[in-house]
Amino acid sequence: MRVDALRNREAILAAARRTFEEQAVLTSLDGIAARAGVGNETLYRHFPTRDDLLSAVMAANLKNLLGTASDLLESLDAREALKEWLFMLTWQLHLA
């Protein structure tokens, strides 16, 4: 993937994540494109459907969440780390 295409994809994902958190998942995709600083065509080239975009956001969120598990274990005891991780997971699923 070209550097500019990757940058656009990441901008769309970041804008979608923030917008979904603020306005729910049925928000305007055109608004997400504008927030990302890209045109509608760019958004739809990367994510042809709302489900594609939502799936990509959820996958990125879960990947980040999996990465936090070891950080939590370093700063909390195992029980507290698990509780915090499950809370974070539940919040991510709630956003879907």
TrEMBL record:
Q: Which key words tag this protein in UniProt?
A: DNA-binding, Transcription, Transcription regulation
Would you tell me the protein name for this molecule? Helix-turn-helix transcriptional regulator
The record's Gene3D superfamilies line, in alphabetical order, gives:
Tetracycline Repressor, domain 2 (1.10.357.10)
Query: At which residues is the DNA-binding region annotated?
Result: 28-47
Question: Does the keyword Cell membrane feature in the UniProt annotation?
Answer: no
Q: Which domain of life is it from?
A: Bacteria
Organism of origin: Pseudomonas lutea
Q: Where does the record place the HTH tetR-type domain?
A: 6-65
Keyword Transcription applies: yes
